[in-house]
Amino acid sequence: MEGPPPQIVAKSLDDYLEQLSKGVFQAGISWRVVDSKWPSITTAFHKFNVERVARMSDRDIDALVKDERVIRSRPKIAAVVHNANELLALERAGGFKKHLKSLPEYEALATDLKKRFKFVGDSGVYHFLWTVKHPVPDWREWSRAHGKDWEAKVKASRAGKPKATRPTTRVRAKPRSPARSAR
To answer: ∠ at Cα 21 (59, 65), nearest 5°?
Structure first.
């Protein structure tokens, strides 16, 4: 995927759980791996139905850890279940959307979400809020402020490599036959 991730209009708490969970699974793993397994992950988590995921037991988590169709990280799977319960708690306490709007400053909201949800760090919060169309700072400014200046890293890695040069074509002389060389 080149460029920013696609954005959605979250119509339900289930949509929020799915977007939050994508960041959980992408932590430390290539987004390509997560994307390739996402249909199976979605099925395994009951299409991210918050109520059903929140009721998943340790036995359900253990079964998913053995399922080769999903990313088999017990801490990440358990985090999705925990996060579903946290979403429900916020919904019952006045509404998750209302909670997102209750902290108008990005950094305060990000800090709150990182405390509440498991396996969600700086990048995960930014990714989540971006995909659900919640206001976030400019990507370049945010990444520099959080020590994740990827543009500078790419430029630095390119600067450290020798520039690719065009191969020079050499015209090889025909090899002399041994009879001619002996003369």
So the answer is: 30
Q: Angle 139-36-158 (CA atoms, 0-180°, nearest 5)?
A: 45
Please tell me the class of the 13-153 domain.
mainly alpha
- Quickly list DSSP for 66-90: T-TTS---HHHHHHHHHHHHHHHHH
pLDDT in tens, 19-73: 999 999 999 999 899 999 999 999 999 999 999 999 999 999 999 999 999 999 9
Each domain of the chain, given as residue ranges in start order, spans 13-153
Q: Are 14 and 42 in contact (CB under 8 A)?
A: no
Q: What is the pTM of this model?
A: 0.80
Residue 107 structure tokens = 């950094």
Report which of 23, 14, 21, 111 is spatially closest to residue 64, judged by C-alpha positions.
21
